[in-house]
Write a structure and sequence with these properties.
The complex is a heterodimer of chains A (395) and B (528). Chain A is 21% helix and 32% strand. Chain A has 395 residues and is α+β, with helices and mostly antiparallel strands. Chain B is of the alpha/beta class and 528 residues long. Chain B has three domains: 226 residues, FAD/NAD(P)-binding domain (3-Layer(bba) Sandwich), CATH 3.50.50.60; 103 residues, no CATH class; 118 residues. Classes of the chains: A alpha+beta (395), B alpha/beta (528).
């Protein structure tokens, strides 16, 4: 039996299709309405409320907390100021990515780490000989994510303190419905957004207060399907879809380095020793064989493939989490791991792993698509990600 | 008096004028758009008429904005967002309702409640319309072939049209033939028995025309409705963020980014003709602009009868333009509301408020509304197409309050005795009294209203006759006949002078095809 999140008493009542997915052993809503369309547009035009409680959460405390995290992740934790949040991957000794998540500095010696996979063992292994305590708080802490251009005005309506001064990737202590919460300006949609962290026991009043405050601003509870479209538009990777965690990989070719995942910006080779540093220094020197890029499918070319069989274009409005081969001429040079129709851009887009030298921006490639049961090749171009980045994301 | 030189001058900053300018600029041309009003947008404008309440004043939904235009001009980067309008709710005179929701099964159940037979017919009807729309849709992106011409370009066009028609079965072809000759009422009677379903469907065949659902030719216009639908999830049908003004604002922003100069408060008095060629325009204030080509994004009457002296056109052409039907038949009532309308048929706030609400209880109801208009009266009980923009885009009204857009038909341009304030009030009263029948709280909820008649459309947006399509979508005014035989390819009898708006093929709605296709033709002609 899967577990239910602290918000289940609310979310289960509004899940019209009783469409549940699994996420780290929890029930999570695929969508709440008959279609995920309004939930998607709430992200892009109003505010969408996600229950992200199933995230793995660890509290890391003690004199060596910063040292431990600095040893694990690829970014510089020692330099983080109190109240700062970073997004970062972390690697094994071969410089291959194990997981990605966020690290929040709650105090001088107190951090919270979120991750997709369980990391308790990895944290403890790395903490050998350090003065640090590691607590898995995944079940004790509930989390909501409020994403969209109206997220701030809604929070300002119901939070004890104004969010106006809270910068991108910073957090603050606050209260909603008299429940103490931590609010971080983070998210997985590439839009303005906040994540709200609270004790599981106090979760429901926070949900109710946000829904009430958001009513006049078009707030919509949203599920994984809408989130999956938005995160592809934002160029954000998903573990086990866009990459295989190195310790889950059965063969070498399934592993990826942060550089190969387009996360080179999050690798600090200047800082002291950390897991995978040596391998990453070498890779940086030689250049990566693979790169994770955005593909924009030429819609006219795509339409033509359908017209050839007498059909208008037919593509699922959902993000496809399946591998689609990428070709240059007749040679396969990569694969798309997530692809979706972008409702805001009116474009078919994909996140893809592409081999050297075809990952350069502007390279023309072909994406394999299935048209009426036949393999066809749609013209596509390597483009910069994010595909969509509103000006208010960081403002 | 000042003088300026450009490659192209576009008269009119509506969506087609701006799209035309953007495409010309994209090809490296130096372009200026001259807009009469202080704001761009034409009939696609959003204005804050009451503080905090933003009305999408005239056009209110995006129907067929070509997706290639959205992509090529990168309109999303310039703020364009087309938000879904997922449902249509039709309250009935007996207190019940019928609705099309955003889920196929839910809609089927809903129709089944009224007629099990109609529920089945609904799917078959939709499939046939989609197949036919597929055959007709490519025409929207093509220059219409001139059937009487033997020039190679036209033959290629004809062949292309023929090819799409050839993909239809013989049975489908007969269906197309029937469709272009039938009335929407007859077509729908063939398929359905539920009055409110037929009434609602027939309405899309009469929007913007001076015809009733029993008038032949209206069935074809229904097809236009399905063209958006065959794009499925890729559709550009819905409510634009910030209203229709949001669409034109994004196009204007894209045009500016491409180097287009946009001048507002610049009403054009006349097109300057030299040696039988359009070479510039003179503004009402005397300023002159010179260019290799002049593009009019105004309606055909203004373009050919007002901006240019008739002596530059053949008599026959002038006659055709004079006869071009532009009878305005629709109006708007834009309301600022303190609360949502509460429909007795389905009380409370619900998903119906995020979609369209259609006052169209039967075909007879709409035909009767037309009867009033035929003889110069505003419909006593009009057809009303309602959306509540503030439910779709929270920025349209203050939190907790709402704006409601009511498209109303029939509202004749030539109302008996002419339009005055009391007639306008009477028109608004007809609408409010009609709405009150279905949502009794509407009257007390109104905190502001804007009444727009065809005369107001003409006065504010500058469209002759106040016809929302710059000319009715009548069969004899479509394709190679729009706006006049032999002149459906955006060129005009005056060299250097082009037509780029809804009065040209393929017609109206916020589609932009005329703006883009005309730019392509201008470039083909070798604009220097």
């Amino acid at each position: 039996m899967l577990r239910t999140t602290p918000f289940h008493p609310r979310t289960s009542l509004i899940n019209q299709l009783q469409n549940w997915r699994r996420w780290s052993g929890y029930y999570t809503a695929g969508l709440y309405e008959m279609s995920h369309e309004r939930e998607y547009w709430a992200i892009r035009n109003a505010a969408a409320l996600f229950d992200v409680s199933p995230l793995m959460k660890y509290l890391i405390e003690g004199p060596d907390a910063a040292r431990l995290l600095d040893r694990i992740v690829t970014r510089d934790v020692q330099k983080m100021s109190i109240g700062q949040v970073i997004y970062t991957p972390w690697c094994n000794a071969e410089g291959k990515v194990l997981d990605d998540g966020t690290v929040s500095r709650l105090g001088e010696t107190t951090f919270r780490m979120t991750s997709a996979d369980p990391n308790l063992r990895w944290l403890n292994l790395n903490a050998a000989g350090m003065d640090v305590s590691i607590t898995d708080i995944s079940d004790q802490m509930a989390a909501l994510s409020l994403q969209g251009p109206k997220a701030r005005v809604i929070l300002n309506r119901c939070a004890a303190k104004s969010l106006d001064g809270l910068k991108y990737f910073r957090l603050m202590e606050n209260a909603i419905a008299e429940v103490p919460v931590t609010i971080s300006r983070t998210g997985y949609t590439g839009d303005l957004g906040y994540e709200i962290w609270m004790e599981a026991a106090n979760a429901l009043p926070v949900w109710d207060a946000l829904m009430a405050a958001g009513h006049d601003y078009g707030i919509a509870p949203a599920g994984i399907l809408a989130l999956d479209v938005a995160r592809v538009e934002a160029g954000l990777i998903l573990i086990e879809t866009d990459y295989t965690a190195a310790h889950h990989a059965l063969i070498e070719s399934q592993k990826s380095s942060p550089f190969e995942l387009g996360l080179g910006w999050a690798v600090n080779l200047e800082k002291g020793p950390f897991n995978g540093k040596q391998a990453l220094v070498a890779e940086k020197a030689h250049g990566s064989e693979w790169m994770f890029v955005g593909l924009e499918v030429d819609w006219v070319g795509m339409e033509r493939l359908f017209h050839e069989v007498g059909l208008p274009p037919q593509i699922s409005p959902l993000t496809l989490r399946a591998s689609l081969p990428v070709f240059k001429g007749s040679a396969q040079v990569g694969y798309a791991s997530s692809s979706t129709w972008s409702p805001v851009l009116k474009k078919y887009i994909a996140l893809a792993h592409v081999q050297k030298p075809y990952f350069e921006i502007g390279t023309d490639v072909l994406l394999e698509v299935t048209v009426e049961h036949q393999r066809k090749y749609a013209p596509a171009k390597v483009v910069k990600t994010p595909f969509y980045e509103p000006e208010w994301k960081k403002k | 008096m000042t003088s300026h030189t450009y490659d192209a001058i576009i008269i009119g900053g509506g969506h087609n004028g701006l799209i035309n300018a953007a495409y010309l600029a994209r090809a490296g041309k130096k372009v200026i758009v001259l807009e009469r009003r202080p704001i761009v947008g034409g009939a696609a404008v959003t204005e804050e008429i009451f503080p905090g309440f933003r009305f999408t004043e005239f056009s209110y939904v995006v129907s067929l904005l070509r997706p290639e235009i959205i992509r090529e001009l990168e309109l999303p980067k310039h703020g364009l967002k087309i938000l879904p309008l997922p449902s249509t709710f039709t309250p009935m005179e007996n207190g019940d309702y019928i609705a099309a929701w955003d889920d196929h099964d839910k809609t089927r159940r809903e129709i089944y409640r009224h007629s099990p037979k109609d529920a089945d017919a609904y799917d078959d009807y939709a499939r046939l319309m989609v197949r036919m729309a597929m055959a007709v849709k490519p025409l929207l992106s093509l220059i219409p072939p001139d059937l009487a011409s033997l020039s190679p370009r036209d033959l290629v066009g004809l062949l292309k049209t023929g090819l799409y028609a050839a993909s239809l079965s013989e049975k489908d072809l007969y269906a197309v033939a029937k469709l272009v000759t039938q009335s929407s009422g007859d077509l729908l009677d063939d398929w359905f028995e539920t009055d409110a379903l037929k009434g609602t469907k027939s309405a899309s065949g009469i929007i913007g025309t001076f015809l009733g659902p029993r008038s032949p030719g209206t069935a074809y216009v229904l097809l236009h409705h399905y063209m958006g639908e065959i794009d499925g999830a890729f559709r550009a049908w819905g409510f634009a963020k910030n209203g229709s003004g949001g669409v034109t604002a994004s196009i204007a922003s894209a045009a500016r980014a491409l180097g287009v100069e946009i001048r507002t408060d610049a009403p054009v008095k006349q097109v300057i003709v030299k040696n039988g060629r359009a070479v510039g325009v003179a503004l009402e204030n005397g300023d002159e602009f010179h260019a290799s080509v002049v593009v009019s994004a105004a309606d055909p009457k203004r373009t050919f009868l007002q901006f240019v002296e008739p002596k530059y056109f053949p008599d026959e052409f002038i006659t055709q333009i004079r006869n071009f039907r532009v009878r305005g038949s629709s109006g708007k009532l834009n309301l600022a509301l303190s609360e949502l309308p509460n429909f007795t048929a389905l009380p409370g706030e619900g998903e119906l408020h995020r979609g369209a609400v259609s006052i169209s209880p039967s075909i007879d109801y709409i035909e009767r509304a037309f009867d009033d208009a035929k003889y110069g009266q505003v419909s006593r009980r009009p057809y009303i197409d309602i959306i509540i923009p503030s439910m779709i885009d929270p920025e349209m009204a203050p939190p907790g309050q709402h704006v409601m857009s009511c498209f109303v038909q029939y509202v004749p341009y030539d109302v008996e005795g002419g339009w005055d304030e009391s007639k306008k009030e009477a028109f608004a009263e007809n609408v409010i009294a009609t709405l009150e029948q279905y949502a009794p709280n509407i009257r007390r909820a109104i905190i502001g209203k804007q009444i727009i008649t065809p005369v107001d459309i003409e006065r504010i947006a500058g469209i002759t006759g106040g016809n929302i399509f710059h000319g009715e979508l009548l069969l004899h005014q479509l394709f190679f006949l729009r706006p006049a035989p032999q002149w459906a390819d955006f060129r005009t009898p005056l060299p250097g002078y082009y037509l780029a708006a809804s009065g040209a093929h393929p017609g109206g709605g916020i589609m932009g095809a005329a703006g883009k296709l005309s730019a392509q033709e201008i470039l083909k002609d070798g604009l220097r």
